[in-house]
Amino acid sequence: MAKAKAAPSSSSGGKAAKKKKWSKGKVKDKAQHAVTLDKPLYDRIMKEVPTFRFISQSILIERLKINGSLARVAIKHLERDGQIKRIVHHSAQLIYSE
């Protein structure tokens, strides 16, 4: 009658199968953020940051391409001038608004 199932192929596993090659992984590019505050960057911070609805250190780092310590200093300066106000005070993350 009907033939039986064909023999399993060589790629089905066992010792005959090829060994899996491990990928090298994805390499993230090194961020080139500003580490010093010059006049054009200072003016940009003073003009743009108070217009953001949500202000945090990570937001400034991402949008303005500045260092984390520069972002903290800029936030403290803006708060002292009264241009932004603190919403949440947490030891790890300070959140501000316009």
TrEMBL record:
Residues 16-25 have a biased composition (Basic residues). Residues 1-32 are annotated as: Disordered. It holds the Pfam family Ribosomal_S25. InterPro entries: Ribosomal_eS25. Residues 1-15 have a biased composition (Low complexity). Gene3D superfamilies: 3.30.63.20. The keyword Transmembrane helix does not apply. The keyword Transferase does not apply. GO terms for cellular component: ribonucleoprotein complex; ribosome. Keywords: Ribonucleoprotein, Ribosomal protein. Belongs to the eukaryotic ribosomal protein eS25 family. This is 40S ribosomal protein S25. It comes from Hermanssonia centrifuga. The lineage of its organism: Eukaryota, Fungi, Dikarya, Basidiomycota, Agaricomycotina.
